[in-house]
Amino acid sequence: EAGVVQSPRYKIIEKKQPVAFWCNPISGHNTLYWYLQNLGQGPELLIRYENEEAVDDSQLPKDRFSAERLKGVDSTLKIQPAELGDSAVYLCASSRGGRVTEAFFGQGTRLTVV
Amino acid sequence: AQTVTQSQPEMSVQEAETVTLSCTYDTSESDYYLFWYKQPPSRQMILVIRQEAYKQQNATENRFSVNFQKAAKSFSLKISDSQLGDAAMYFCARGNQGGKLIFGQGTELSVKP
After folding, report:
1. What is the DSSP string of chain B?
2. Contacts of B105 in chain A (CB under 8 A)
3. How many domains does chain A have?
4. pLDDT tens for each residue of B29-54
5. Mind telling me how many Å the CA of B18 is from chain A's nearest CA?
6. Is the CB of A107 less than 8 angstroms away from the CB of B44?
7. Which of A45, B78, B94, B112 is a good FRET partner for A94, with 20 to 30 A between their CA atoms?
8. Could you give the domains of chain B?
9. Range of A56's domain?
């Protein structure tokens, strides 16, 4: 079974530029998460999808961040415009959903904004 | 607040020895899940062990076991016969039936040869 795939693994951009991250979850997993992980800290949830529906986006800074999960499979997270403080690791995870919340993670994208 | 707290930013253990990582959490729910994840420098979060709150028996996975104290809202991880490959960041996490997963701040474990 293939794991969660994220791309790119690394991204360096100048501030005020847009950036997008892509995630392909494990086949059959209905729930998809995007997490933000700052250096030395635990992941913090940005948004959670159940199939195509964003069921928890309360922590997503909607003035500059957006996400979509078309057809309930792949997902894209976008930042526009990026700020210096957005430099972090962006993790995608997926789970089967339902009662069990065991999540499987991708390798993340390390974003550096200069 | 629905929080997860890891009070040990760093821990160190001698190879082949045993180490225990602490975690406490806060929740108003009666049914939930607890997890320990390992994050090596590659950044891949790897599930180490899982505990369902309604089960009184502590989970074990080979050299990894937990001490789950539901009343105290405590969930510690014990690593026996520590190996060099165990060195990593370890995160405690709480999940609920709604699918929300909340992480602690992490404990960096180093293993000395």
Report:
1. ---EE---SEEEEETTS-EEE--EE--S-SSEEEEEEEE-TT---EEEEEEETT--SPPEETTEEEEEETTTTEEEEEE-S--GGG-EEEEEEEEETT--EEE---EEEEEE-
2. 41-42
3. 1
4. 888 899 999 999 888 899 999 998 88
5. 24
6. yes
7. B78
8. 4-112 (2.60.40.10)
9. 5-113
